[in-house]
Amino acid sequence: MAPFQTLMIGGGMIAHDQILPSLYQLQRDGLIGEITVCAQTGRTTKALADNRTIHEGFPGHTFIPRPDFNTVDDLTRKHPALYRELLRDMPPRQLVIMALPDQLHFDSIMAALEANQHVIAVKPLVLSYAHALEVERVARERGLFVGVEYHKRFDDRALMARTQYREGRFGNFRLGQAALMEPWYYRESNFQNWCTCENSDLFTYIGCHYVDQIHFITGHLPTEVSVYGIVDTYPNGREGYLWTDGRVLWDNGACLNVVNAIGYPNHGAGGNFQGLRMFCQGEDDGCILFHDDQYRGLKYCYAASGDGPNATRYSEPSPDYFRLVDRGGETLTPVGYGFRSVEGLTKAAAQVETAGPDLAAKQAVLERIDSEGIIATPANSSFNELVIEAARLSITQNGRPVTIDYDETPHVTPRSW
Ligand SMILES: NC(=O)c1ccc[n+]([C@@H]2O[C@H](COP(=O)([O-])OP(=O)(O)OC[C@H]3O[C@@H](n4cnc5c(N)ncnc54)[C@H](O)[C@@H]3O)[C@@H](O)[C@H]2O)c1
Q1: Distance 158 CA to ligand 1 centre (A)
Q2: N or C: at which end does the chain have fewer Cβ atoms within 10 angstroms?
Q3: Does the model's pTM come out above 0.90?
């Protein structure tokens, strides 16, 4: 198979922090060919192209910028429909990485599928269950891969927990606490333009990782969601649910509490605050499964603090999500579950593409990926969309519980008493 011609749509934080350097490594490894990045403005493609760390790590690697900041007359002019033109011009059955704000996921994924492209989507896949079903249906009909980039699934601790929980070593999950607090300075970022009350909230944006983790580890499905959100104001005056407290019940009666915020102190030692505690019931004793996902055991105190809004002299960096390390030679190598996730999803798309020319063979590979359940796909992870639908209903009704029914047509219903 020739390396995938790749189009990344979106050039913001996740594109910079994780996806572009991962794609450059996959280019080195021969899985990915030419890379185009389509953002909304030339300013964004320029900032990505000018990034010093990425340049130093991947000398000689470049992407085709769209809009092209070299030729565009106004770097700030918006080109929201440009990615559609680029999709039309792409040869079929290549790879699209969709890294757009949450509310734009569905339209852009559908546009990519209609252009016969495999898709890797940043989480959450889409914001409603009906949309997840539609993505699943169209992809299956065309023998195309759609994977959701829940990168925590590629953290070895999650994979260990999944195997051992399913062997019965933790008994039955009963109560859980999860937290993921993003740093305060995110308020200054592009988030203030889209992660606002009408589009998303902190539970939907980032709490979904831990809802997904509970299913990934235990196999249980969520049955009721209640989310209380505190509205706070961004520097640009727009409002978002920037502090959320979610409660998710599961089909075995278990309960998970998830707190999320853009509220971790810029002066804090970690990049954010995150972790999961599961309290479980064995035959004759309790069992616990604790993941401290923020503090990964490193304590550094520098001679001076570095650059950046949350650079501190005393720091507890995580080596496990995404780092560029020097393994010799003149380049840097990405390590961590952020890279393994992009690699795993790209390899899955390649497996579908190399399954043979006939549709049935491609669909058989898609079904195997769905049933393995390691890679999140619309078919095996759309409970996440039901949770999001329920959460969005709940948060606008002051935390009213919303049930999820998995009958012939799974749906959500606000609870009444
Ligand atoms: N932990 C995670 O898994 C994780 C972390 C961060 C972000 N994300 C997800 O990634 C997505 C993007 O988040 P981000 O942090 O990069 O946000 P961001 O605001 O930094 O970037 C969004 C980018 O999309 C671009 N964009 C918007 N409309 C566009 C259009 N019509 N055409 C082309 N580009 C367009 C913007 O210019 C911007 O570059 C979100 O869905 C978010 O939930 C996931």
Answers
A1: 25
A2: C
A3: yes
